[in-house]
Here is the input.
Amino acid sequence: MTSSPNFQISSISDNKLSTIFSKELDIFGLKIYATSATSDDDIVHAGKIFAEYLDNDEDGEVDDQEVLTSLKNENASLIMFEDEGELERTDLDILDEVNGNFQDLYGIETNPNGAALNEFDASLEEILHLISDNGYSQVYPDAFSTKDTSLLTEAMDIARGGKFLRTPNSYPSEAWYTYYDETCDYSCQATEYFYWGLTSILGAQSFPGRYETIQDEWQLNTREKVQETDAQLYALLTDEKYFLPTKIPDGDYTLNIEENNLDDQSNINLNTKIIKQITNTINSSKQTYSKHSSEFKFYNLGDNRYAIKTDYGYEEITGVSTLDFTDQDLSLTTDIKSTFDQVTGKDNHTGKMFRLYNAAFGRFPDSSGLEYWIEQNGSGVNSDRQVAESFLVSDEFNATYGENISNETYVETLYLNILAREYDQEGYEYWLGQLNNGQENRGELLLGFAESDENKALFSEMTGFY
Here is the structure.
């Protein structure tokens, strides 16, 4: 899982692009690059529209991880200028040297709460173009491809009154989509058609005076008009299997905490089981421990409180900034809290990856590593078994479990590293039999231990998700 955006503008990180842009904003791992003349308010507004399109239910997770992965693979980025004049004065040759797909937006075109002012917010259009071209059309080509025949282009041919590979001098009288821009080829026309259809269905084109402005290009400016006149497009854009937005972004991206994937009625506001066992509270900014960090367990107490288990019991470390171990220093905020924050449920993919990571390496997951595997698994790039197999061939796994070990030693080590106990004879014989008989391989055994009821109980104690 990629962390939900905080809308904090930073200095640009790409050296090549720094010749044009000075600011950047991260939205679920995607970038908005902006010039120094572009106002921060306009950049943040665009970022919130971007986030709302991707996370339409505002639960902190992108609605379609495959679309997000595609956008990243295509290096899709929004580039912002103050206005058209600044864009025309800018030498854009450097963009040709960068492997990316860019969509421009002028700050002056952004209109927060535009519909209430009877003005259109262009960020609704340009950002959707970026997402549809580099996301939906790539992930669902049969439905949304703009370059080959798709359900979208078939519907568009009807809407335009025929299949026109080049912009005609005039459209048939029965057409309701009549875009005359000769610089917009067939693929571009399909991108615009997708935008017109979806934003009309979601209500962005129906404010007073809007129809009069757009009717020469698009006549179906309400949900009802699209449903009645362009039934094919309406069916396509409201088909739930494509995870398209169901409400128009309004620039107010607010996480819906109650629906933030806290499945199984999990309660992370009060991890009472661990809180009751706290024996000490550390108040110093830095706390030193004379052992390797992997020998300790960390706990999310809820309400931004955290604890560590030592030889002396459970210690609350909420007020500590840095924990000093013999192998490394850990920051409470960037190493511990940021790891816990990525886990959004007990039985969803974030919980599974936390358990598998913890099981494979016998330690608390590092934030960046966990984020990577959550995204790989959540996007469908790697299944649970594939992640387990990847862990098995890593250097850290071999260092933790040993190289060229017997099946007997492997099973014994699973009990110690994952369940923190010696094996019971019945369980030991079962798992060893599974390996020796070829019923399961070592990766599947690792996954089985990670997802066992006993390890899930340990996971609940650590994270507060029950």
Notes: The chain has 20 helices and twelve strands. The first strand starts at residue 10 and ends at 11. The first helix runs from residue 40 to 54.
